[in-house]
Amino acid sequence: MDLARWAHLPFGSWPWRPRVEGMGDAERLLAGGKPTKACLEWAVVSGDVEGEVRERLLIYGVLDVCKAHGRPDVYTGFRRMLVERPAMSERDLALALADPDLALVAQFVRSAYRPAPAEALSGGNAVVCGGCGNLWVLDQSGQRRCQEWDCPDPSAEGWRLPAAEGVVWLSRELRMFVSGPGRVELRIAQKLERAGLTVTLWPDFDACDLLPAEVPWAADVKSWLNPVRLAWQLTERPFAPPPGSERGFIVIAAEQTTGRPEYLRALRSHCAWLKGQSRVRAVTEKAYVEQVIRRAREGAAR
Asked: For residue range 268-289, what is the model confidence (pLDDT) as tens digits?
């Protein structure tokens, strides 16, 4: 019971402090009785995580089917759906399953979504967050709010879904490892497209997260809370820029680097793999967008 109580406290206030590198003083393992993003990141780097296995099996299953049928467009449509519609009504899910463009992966779409939990259904409806599209849930004080780790605007109320019609929500693993980072990937793509570039998302069946046509700099987008844990993960699973790209970038989401100038320094100093790379660099989201746009304009001016 003491350990369960400590898990709700920031590491810096624990009466006993494990000597583990990468443990931030402000991080905690539980919030409202549920694992925090920090807790899940620790679980992922530990190497044996049921949730990560489920997520990888589903995504790899979709990849296998789409590759077998030569349909990268179906894979991209599936990924976009998970990012843009993490929560919906049962009726909307049924319509999505009937979409000819998703028929090939309908079974995977169905398995990605679960019935919304009781804490998301109150007063006969579910509230969809205007910031990220996920569901608001009751907190310990009895108030409904968005509790997603990377929501850009957790206080923005979107729309309501009647509980009587059925409400579904992506599994927690998919929200953390696919939908959350996917919002950042779409945001970067939209910034580049507004500057006149053509961007392919998840090209060649997920060889990278996005690739601008005019400037073939492949991006692997990351939104990890802790740079040391990300360094371990990159060392375990290095990013290889796909054929046809000039170079690769580990792009860190703005949510993680804003107000944290030490983030990239810690990532670079703890990632042995990055230190030995000449074709792959770690940069902020802002730096990647600015450098790609600048390079594109320089090329157009020649």
From this structure: 999 989 988 889 999 999 999 9
